[in-house]
Amino acid sequence: MRGVRGPGRRAGVVLGLTGMLVPLTLAIGSTPAAAASACTAKAGPHQKQVEKFLGRKADGKQSTADCTAIRAFQKKHGVSPAAGYAGPLTWQIMNTMIQQKAAGKNPNKAGKCPVNKGRIACVDLTRQLSWIQDGKKLKFGPVPVRTGKDKFETRTGLKKIYMRNIDHVSSIYDVKMPYAQFFDGGQAFHSVTKSMWNPPGSAGCVNMTPSNAKSYWSLLKKGDEVYVYGRKPGT
To answer: Which domain holds residue 80?
Structure first.
């Protein structure tokens, strides 16, 4: 969530809910309430990948058990509709999780975040990861983050923390932004209580879990640099 509205953003292709709006398997005469809770019997375009991610038999065929497992994942991370359909958005979230796990304890292996700046907070939009390093030494993380959605993207480039407020409240959205550390025109690190994989994303800020935002607050100070790079999937 941003504290100050920034300039216009580039247009993006939204991997939205279009691919998930499929007919649900309903008995004749079902009520709207039943339809809302129904589970789709249709296999999605990413059925095998989703099944494999969830540790199920990757046969590409939708079963009741498959749908139940997919729906549980969707509900946990705020994917709507949570109909158990293995669509583009569900797989996009899972694929991001796979990339985050692969980063291990060497998130800057590719050397994209500067190592000649001393202490710096790095934000990789592509993998939705952030960490703090000092030169080549990893000081904290990497941790999953939730960055700006399409048309509200977290802006890339080298920045500096210019304001910190542990109890900040957004002047635009009137929402709390605990442990806010601003680094670019109202965009800030701050904590949220929702899933880090909750789509479509923030209004530009770098959302973190409360514990990680608290650690960033302790490790960073005004004037420390922040480097944002990459491109968030779906923007």
So the answer is: 25-99
Identify whether the C-beta of residue 128 lies closer than 8 Å to the C-beta of residue 198.
no
* Residue 67 is a catalytic residue: no
| Annotated catalytic residue, options 46, 77, 168, 190 | 190
Is 168 considered catalytic here?
no
**Residue 93 and residue 45 share a domain:** yes
Instruction: Provide the CA 28 distance to its chain's centre, in angstroms.
Output: 38
Q: Give tens-digit pLDDT for 25-81.
A: 332 233 343 444 589 999 999 999 999 999 999 999 999 999 999 999 999 999 999
Domain finish residue from 99, 122, 155: 99
**To which residue do tokens 């005004």 refer?**
222
Catalytic residue among 67, 113, 122, 205: 205
User: Structural domain tally of the chain?
Assistant: 2
For residue 144, whether the previous peptide bond is cis, meaning omega lies within 30 degrees of 0, is no
Same-domain pairing of 217 and 152: yes
pLDDT of 130 over the 60 cut: yes
User: Phi and psi for 111 in degrees, rounded to 5?
Assistant: 70, 25
